Amino acid sequence: MKKYLVVLRCGDRSLHPQWFSGGKTPSFDLMLSYYGNNENYADVFAKTIHRFKGTKWEGLHDFMLQNPQLILQYRYIWLPDDDILTDVQTLNEFFEYVERENFALAQPSLDERSYFSHSTTLQNRAFEFRETNFVEVMVPCFSSNALHAIKDSFGRTQTGWGLDYLWPKQVASLGKVGIIDRFAVFHTRPVGSADHSMAWSELNQTLGQYGMRASIKVRQGRTRDVGKTYASGRLGNPMLFIHAVKGSHPARRKNVIAYLGLLKEYLPWLHYTKRKTQPYYRAPDRRSSPSK
């Protein structure tokens, strides 16, 4: 058994076979939760295949219920979507990094080719990592203790909307939470939801239940050049913001609205200007590269 685990909720178009094309030996086990229609589905890379129809979270919830003790034997568990393109070496180094830095919950950033919904998740080349109050449900990685703490949330959602804000709140006492800019993966397909009305309902219910707002904050970041960590504090830190601008993808600075979104993430006092919870807005699917 390896130190780390990838549990991939996948269909017949899953990109995970391409991860292994480089010939590197993985430091992780791969377990598939298959929702496709092929009764003879098999995979040479997977340690086991769990079969379950339904959404990602319904399937993962069933997987966790069937394998509670197995999950606890791993140090970190990654739960990506099946349209993520990466490679074994990147994943090996990512797992080692989040363990060394004591992350309870983390995600790799998205590279410049990716479709994205939240521009915060795009790779910022000025940072090693950014500690945030948000980790996207597309690619979350948990320590075993953190996953145990939030596992019941899988059974309360079909779409996953809102969990990106809830999980960081629930696991903050167990370690760091944030986006690892040192490693980036390629999200190859537009984000979609089978039932947007249900997604909105679940999101608003989660935010309302826990008194949260759909506002992403960067609390601190470790710079890549000298490895110095800058904390935001309540009013913001000019050095943190300068690095944020310097390392951001051009898509984040292409117009006033995009720039103001960047500004708000790094100046926390802007989140306190209105007490009433703001309506949630999920950005339209788009690639991060402005030329595509």
Give a structural overview.
This protein is α/β, with parallel strands linked by helices and 292 residues long. It has one domain: Spore Coat Polysaccharide Biosynthesis Protein SpsA, Chain A, CATH 3.90.550. It has helices spanning 56-66, 68-72, 88-100, 144-150, 163-171, 196-210, 238-247, 256-266, and strands spanning 4-10, 28-34, 48-51, 76-78, 84-85, 103-110, 115-116, 127-132, 141-143, 176-187, 218-223, 229-231, 286-287. Strands 1, 2, 3, 4, 5, 6, 8, 9, 10, 11 and 12 form an eleven-stranded mixed sheet that branches. The chain has a two-stranded antiparallel sheet with strand order 7-13. Strand 11 and strand 12 (229-231) form a beta hairpin. The longest helix is centred in the C-terminal third of the chain and has 15 residues, at 196-210.
SSE topology sketch:
Layout (H helix, E strand, L loop, with lengths): L3 E7 L17 E7 L13 E4 L4 H11 L1 H5 L3 E3 L5 E2 L2 H13 L2 E8 L4 E2 L10 E6 L8 E3 H7 L12 H9 L4 E12 L8 H15 L7 E6 L5 E3 L6 H10 L8 H11 L19 E2 L5
Parallel strand pairs: 1-2, 1-4, 2-3, 6-10
Antiparallel strand pairs: 4-9, 5-10, 6-9, 7-13, 8-10, 8-11, 11-12
Our count of helices gives 8
Using the 3D structure, state the CATH architecture: Alpha-Beta Complex
Distance between the termini: 42 Å
Radius of gyration: 18 Å
Count of discrete domains: 1
Beta-strand proportion = 15-25%
Can you tell me the residue ranges where pLDDT is under 50 for at least 5 consecutive residues? 273-284
Helical fraction equals 25-40%
CATH class: Alpha Beta
Please trace the helix and strand order, writing H or E for each element: EEEHHEEHEEEEHHEHEEHHE
State mean pLDDT (0 to 100 scale): 90
Describe the largest sheet.
11 strands, mixed
State the secondary-structure class. alpha/beta
Stated plainly, the CATH topology is called Spore Coat Polysaccharide Biosynthesis Protein SpsA, Chain A
